[in-house]
Design brief:
InterPro entries: Aminotrans_3, Aminotrans_3_PPA_site, PyrdxlP-dep_Trfase, PyrdxlP-dep_Trfase_major, PyrdxlP-dep_Trfase_small. The protein is α/β, with parallel strands linked by helices and 440 residues long. Helix content is 40%, strand content 17%. The strands form four sheets. The chain has a seven-stranded mixed beta sheet, sandwiched between helices. The protein has a four-stranded mixed beta sheet with strand order 1-2-3-15. It has a four-stranded antiparallel beta sheet with strand order 13-14-17-16. It binds 4'-deoxy-4'-aminopyridoxal-5'-phosphate.
């Protein structure tokens, strides 16, 4: 309950009072290397000068004007910049205040689209097990984490779940990576046919699964096959890049590495980089056009959408990424991070897998490397790692295996794009100390 503020909160957790690049500082002056940026939020590190200046300037000019009455320069600029950088065909942007709002908007827009083009029977969503798409009721329905879903069932959006693309756990030893990708993508077609293609509205997936699986990337070819299947059955492909987008994988949008253009993309976290709450839904022109030609109005909206301060922060984030060539840096530093993790944990008796893309990495722990069996969930290894890392002055993002006990506990690592080589060493060394302490 520590994230419900008031009365008893102080004392349960350290009080964060400042930030300095890759470090967060608490009220006692202790410095923590921020190895996860919350969960992949603080992509520029803390106290970034450009974002601070942009926010100062914006608050002097205009903080808020309701989008029911006005547009604003920062919001228009942000939309134009996102469209210019997005995969082919994306040409509209819907600005919201966070990830769940972006996913929620995507689901409602998909539903309205099919209503307007005369296919009202399309209402079902297919997503993947071990995924997370947010905590509001629609987004929760799409998510495939049983533990989060179960206490709120029946959920609002009818969703069924297929296997994730999870090479470490899914690929058979004698199967090529390509065959594995095609086989697991084939589950989507089977599920569409089982449900009846004319009833399915959208397929939702994270190109690199974040919090619930620990930076698990789709293998090459998987998303391309998914795109083909969606096209074949007239189903919208929604890629949730709330965590893996905004440069985290070394591409502004993770799906650009996969060579795939979805119908919609959701982003948040790194868009505001922690300086402002903001999210966005990016949409293919055909969806916008259908609604414009029909009712002319997307039946949705939130008070703070297109907030000028939030958009100003996001514009400054994009400028930092562009002008400092941070995407190249994410790829270089990401390779170094992967190499350092591999060197440290490659032979570790209880590390089964080290994976990810760019500065988005995951370490999966197992009781036995040969069988890949996870530790008993009651051991709560992930919580012990989090505590030991914190004590050592490292913020990382450990999570338990899924409720069905299929996966091992894992640690998600998502440092700021500005991380230096010495800080990569510090991160890996502190993580190693924390893992060994938790295991002892
Ligand atoms: N989708 C994904 C992939 C996420 O990782 C998250 C947040 N962890 C969300 C959606 C929800 O975002 P928010 O917490 O900003 O509502």
């Amino acid at each position: 309950m520590s994230h419900i503020f008031g009365r008893s909160t102080r004392g349960q957790l350290p009080t964060a009072v400042g930030g300095d690049g890759c470090y967060l500082i608490d009220a006692t002056g202790k410095r923590y290397l921020d190895g996860s940026g919350g969960a992949a939020v603080s992509c520029l590190g803390h106290s970034n000068a450009r974002v601070r200046a942009a926010l100062h300037l914006q608050v002097e000019q205009l903080a808020f004007a309701h989008t029911g009455f006005f547009t604003s320069d920062p919001a228009e600029e942000l939309a134009d910049r996102l469209v210019a950088a997005a995969p082919e065909g994306i040409d509209r942007v819907y600005l919201v205040s966070g990830g769940s709002e972006a996913v929620e908007a995507a689901l409602k827009l998909a539903r309205q689209y099919y209503m307007e083009i005369g296919q009202p029977q399309r209402h079902r969503v297919i997503a993947r097990r071990q995924s997370y798409h947010g905590n509001t009721l629609g987004a929760l329905a799409a998510g495939g984490n049983e533990w989060r879903r179960s206490q709120f069932a029946p959920l609002l959006v009818e969703t069924t779940h297929i296997s994730p693309c999870y090479e470490y756990r899914g690929r058979a030893e004698d199967e090529s990576v390509e065959d594995y990708g095609l086989r697991v993508a084939g589950e989507l077609e089977a599920e569409i046919l089982r449900l009846g293609p004319e009833t399915v509205m959208a397929f939702v997936a994270e190109p690199v699964v974040g919090a619930t699986a620990g930076a698990v990337p789709a293998v090459e070819g998987y998303l391309k096959r998914i795109r083909e299947i969606c096209d074949q059955y007239g189903i919208l492909l929604i890629l949730d890049e709330v965590m893996c987008g905004m440069g985290r994988t070394g591409y502004l949008f993770a799906c650009q590495e996969d060579g795939v253009s979805p119908d919609m993309i959701t982003i948040a976290k790194g868009l505001g980089a922690g300086y402002q709450p903001i999210g966005a839904l990016l949409v293919q022109g055909k969806i916008y056009d259908a609604i414009a030609a029909g009712s002319g109005f997307f039946q949705h909206g939130h008070t703070y959408m297109g907030h000028a301060m939030a958009a100003a922060a996001a514009n400054a984030v994009l400028s930092e990424i562009e002008e400092n060539d941070l995407l190249t840096r994410v790829r270089t530093q990401g390779d170094k991070l992967q190499a350092a993790l591999q060197a440290q944990f490659g032979q570790h008796a209880h590390v089964g897998d080290v994976r990810g893309r760019g500065l988005f990495r995951g370490v999966e722990l197992v009781a036995d490397r040969d069988t890949k069996n996870p530790f008993d969930p009651s051991k709560k290894l992930h919580a012990k790692i989090k505590a030991a890392a914190f004590e050592a002055g490292l913020i990382c993002y450990p999570m338990g295996g899924t409720i069905d006990g299929v996966n091992g506990d894992h640690v998600l690592i998502a440092p700021a794009f500005i991380i230096e080589d010495t800080q990569i060493d510090e991160l890996v060394s502190k993580l190693s100390t924390a893992i060994d302490k938790a295991l002892s």
